[in-house]
Amino acid sequence: MTGIKKERYRFSEAPIWDIQRKYYEEKGTTAWNRGQVPQYITSNPMIAGAYAEMIFAFLQDRAMKEGRSEPVFIVELGAGAGRLAYHVLHELRQLRDYAGIPLPPFRYIMTDLAMNNVEAWKKHPALQSFIAEGLLDFAQFDAVHDTVLSLVGSGVTISEGELTQPLVIVANYFFDSIPQDLIYVGDGQIYEADVEIEYPEHHETLTHSEWLERIALRYEYRRAPEYEQGTYPYRDVISVYREQLEDSHILFPSAGIACLDRLNQLTQAGFLLITADKGDHLLDSWTFAEPPELVLHGSFSLTANYHAIRHVFEQRGAAALFPPHHYKNINVGCILHLDQPMDYPNTRLAYRRRIERFGPDEFFSMKEWVDRNQDSMGLQQMLSFWRLGGYDAEFLIQNAKRIASLLSDANDEEKQDMLRGIQLMWSSYYAMEQRYDLALNAGFLLFEMGMYEHSKPFLEMPVNQDQDEVLSTVYYCLAICCFELELAEDALRYIRKLLEIEPDHEEALAWIRRFE
C-alpha cells in the first residue's frame, strides 16, 4: 500500500506506549474533561468512600500494632484529574474526626507522569485545606523508571528503606495504561507475540489521538523459552499459563509488578495495594483470549492482568482480596503485601463490606439502569440512589429536570432531604472544566421548592463571577427570592438587570411600575 509504513516491535516496546506518555504529558488535566478519557467510574464519591473506609480500617489495624507515631503515606499512581484523591481525603478526614480514636498520622501523595497535572493540583481550590493541614502533597512520578518519590510541597525525597510504616498504594485505571508484555500460549509452549504496526507516512503531522486512530496492529509469533527459564522472575505464573491455558493471548504486567517492587523498596514494612481497573483476576477469563485491541478514548487502554499480579504477590506471602464473582465494568482488588497480612482484620472486613458484598461495580451497573429509566422513577427512589452514590454532583446534573418535575408533589420531608443532599453535594464538589453550571441546577431546584434563602446564594454565583452570559431566568428568580426575603433594593437591582436583557418582560415592567 502506498503511503503506509510497517514496523515490527516487541509489544511492550511498541511506539504506542510512547504516544500514550506524550498524550498525557501534553493534555495534562484536560485529558479528563468533556468525556475524553473515562474518569467517573473510578473517581466518583461512592468508590472514593469505599477506599476511604479501607484506608481508615488499615490505620486502625496499624494503631493496634502500636504504629501511631510515624505517618502512613498513601500514594496514588496516575492521579489524573485529581477527583478521586479529593473525595478520598474528604471522606477520610470525616471518618477520622467522627471516630475520634487514636490513629497514625497520614499523608496522601498525588502522583502523575505529567508535571502539568502536579501544577494544576497545587492550585486547585478544593485541595487547599488538605495542603494547609499537611494531609496532601504531590510528586511527579514515572511509574516505569523512577525509584524515589520527590515531594513537591514539603521538598522531601523518600528514598529506599526510609519509611517505617507500610505504604498504601492506590492505582485506578493504572495497570491497563502502562506497558505490558504480550505472550501467546499454544501446544504447551510460550511464544512472544510481537506486533507489526502499520501507520501512515508523514504521521508526524498527526495529533497523538489521530495517530492511534489510524494505525493497524498485526501480531507475529516466535518461541520465547526465556519465559520458562529459572532466571525469569515470574516463571511460576508463566508455568500456570503453559500448563492450564491453550490458544490464549496473555497481557503480562511486568512493568506494573516492577513498579510495585520499586515502591516496596521505599518502606521497611510492605504495602497495601487498592486498585480498580478493567482487569481479570480469574484464570478462566484468560482462556482462549483473543489478541488485544486498543480501546481508544483520546489515549488508549487495554485489560489489566490482575491474575498475574495476584499470583506473584501471593507467592511472596501476600493476601489478595478480589470479588469471588465476575465483574461487569470494573474490578476492585486489594493486596496486603505485609508481614502477617491476616493480622489486618479491619482492613479485610472493610473490603468485604464495601467491595465484595456491594461495591463500585454493582453501583455502576445500577447507575446505568437509572440513567436509562429516570423518567419512571419517583422522588424517593431518586433520593435513595443519590444517597447511595454519596450525593454525587453528576447524578444531580443528569437528573435535574426529572427531579424538578417531581417537586410539585413532594412533601416537606422530601424537600428537606433534597436540601440536605444539595448541601452535602456542594460541600464535597470537586470542580473540573465542565459544560454545565452545577450551582444553577442547585439554585433552580431550591427555588422550585420555595427555599428562597437557600436558593439565592447558588443563583448569585454566576452573577458574582461576572459571567458574560447570565440567563434572564436567573435574574427573574433572584428578584423573586429577594422579594420573598424582603430585600427590596436587591430585588429592584435584579429586575433592572433582567430588563437589560429582555426590555419587554411584562412582569419585570409591572414590578418597576409598582416600585415607582
TrEMBL record:
Question: What's one Pfam family here?
Answer: Methyltransf_28
Q: Which InterPro entries match?
A: NDUFAF7, NDUFAF7_sf, SAM-dependent_MTases_sf, TPR-like_helical_dom_sf, TPR_rpt
Q: Where are the TPR repeats?
A: 472-505
Domain of life, per lineage: Bacteria
Alphabetically list the UniProt keywords: Methyltransferase, TPR repeat, Transferase
The answer, when asked if Transmembrane helix is one of the entry's keywords, is no
Name of the featured protein: Tetratricopeptide repeat protein
Question: Top-down, what is the taxonomic lineage of the species of origin?
Answer: Bacteria, Bacillati, Bacillota, Bacilli, Bacillales
